[in-house]
UniProtKB/TrEMBL annotation:
Record's subcellular location: Cell membrane
Entry's transmembrane regions: 21-41, 53-71, 78-96, 102-123, 130-148, 168-189, 218-242, 274-293, 299-320
Keyword field: Cell membrane, Membrane, Transmembrane, Transmembrane helix
Species per Swiss-Prot/TrEMBL record: Ornithinimicrobium humiphilum
A Pfam family matched in the record: BPD_transp_2
Protein name, UniProt field: Monosaccharide ABC transporter membrane protein (CUT2 family)
Length: 328
């Protein structure tokens, strides 16, 4: 009897580890790095530093939530950094006209429309999302520079600035927005029909299509989510810096994709984790912060992030697939 119970518990533990290996592994990496930086960098563990880290990574967390849906369907969005820059520039320009509410709404609508266009071209135009969003990456950055002539626009609106600089219960507003996005994404991904369809599109799209589900709507929908999330990240970034810069978000897409892949989401689709993506973004945040506090040359930060991306892809395609039994 005791042997049977032990065997059952062992199988349940093995099943749990297999299903959540991506989240567990990045959690271990996060804890180890957090402990190392706590010992090596004096200012790392201060409340002020931790609060600032949470504010700085908020845009990455927000877009990583949407990117988790995109990559789980087997697609990718390389344009989120340029959409962030375009949104920041538009918010600054439109806020300068004296209508901050319209500037906010208009910026978010532009992000949503951009995402819908990307999604329509990928899903209904039968183009690879990689190609569509790569073209969008260049086009929207160019559009932002054209509209602003490369200059930043100061933001002085008392309505917009709290979105990046406001504080509530010891945490900055961007952190609270990021927490809300994680909660919403987790619920939709794990407890709604749409979330189940997202996973099914990435794992077995043909079976889902034959069951009568319009998979192109889902593919377009997740890219629209990414556009809206990137616009929200642009609003937060511009409000935090009190300036709408067309150069905001340069190489931002690589940071977001790295966070999502680190969290265990499969680049080939069919498997994803919202919580894993959030922990992945947190891990990248403390790496950047820890290296700066250790006075490592700032030029090493992108080099380290690039190496982490390569390592994450290796883990994603080899290690995660082996433990989870996902398709390769």
């Amino acid at each position: 009897m005791t042997t049977t119970a032990t065997t059952t518990s062992s199988r349940q533990l093995s099943s749990f580890v297999s299903r959540h290996f991506g989240v567990l592994s990045i959690s271990v990496v996060f804890v180890v790095l957090f402990a190392v930086f706590s010992v090596q960098a004096d200012a790392f563990l201060t409340v002020e530093n931790q609060v600032n880290v949470l504010r700085q990574i908020a845009p990455t967390v927000i877009v990583a939530m949407a990117m988790t849906f995109v990559i789980t369907t087997g697609q990718i969005d390389l344009s989120v950094g340029s959409v962030l820059g375009l949104s920041a520039a538009l918010l600054g320009m439109w806020a300068a006209t004296g209508s901050p509410v319209l500037a906010l709404v208009g910026t978010l609508v532009v992000g949503l429309v951009v995402g819908l266009v990307n999604g329509a071209l990928a899903a209904y135009g039968r183009m690879q999302s990689f190609i569509v969003t790569l073209a969008a990456l260049t086009a929207f950055r160019g559009l932002a520079l054209f509209l602003t002539e490369g200059y930043s626009t100061p933001i002085e609106s008392t309505f917009l600035l709290p979105l990046g600089q406001g504080k509530l219960l010891g945490l900055y507003t961007p952190t609270w927005i990021a927490i809300a996005c994680v909660a919403l994404a987790w619920y939709v991904f794990n407890h709604t029909r749409f979330g189940r369809y997202v996973i099914a599109v990435g794992s077995n799209a043909e079976s889902l299509r034959r069951s009568g589900v319009d998979i192109r709507k889902i593919q377009m929908g997740v890219l629209a989510m990414a556009g809206l999330a990137a616009a929200l990240a642009g609003v937060i970034t511009a409000a935090r810096l009190a300036s709408g810069s067309p150069n905001s978000g340069t190489a931002f897409e690589l940071e977001v994709i790295t966070a999502v892949v680190l969290g265990g989401t499969s680049l080939m689709g069919g498997r994803g984790s919202v919580i894993g993506s959030a922990i992945g973004a947190l891990t990248l945040g403390i790496i950047s912060n820890g290296l700066v506090l250790l006075r490592v040359d700032v030029y090493w930060v992108p080099i380290v992030q690039g190496l982490i991306l390569v390592l994450a892809i290796l883990m994603n395609t080899r290690l995660f697939g082996r433990f989870s039994g996902a398709k390769k």
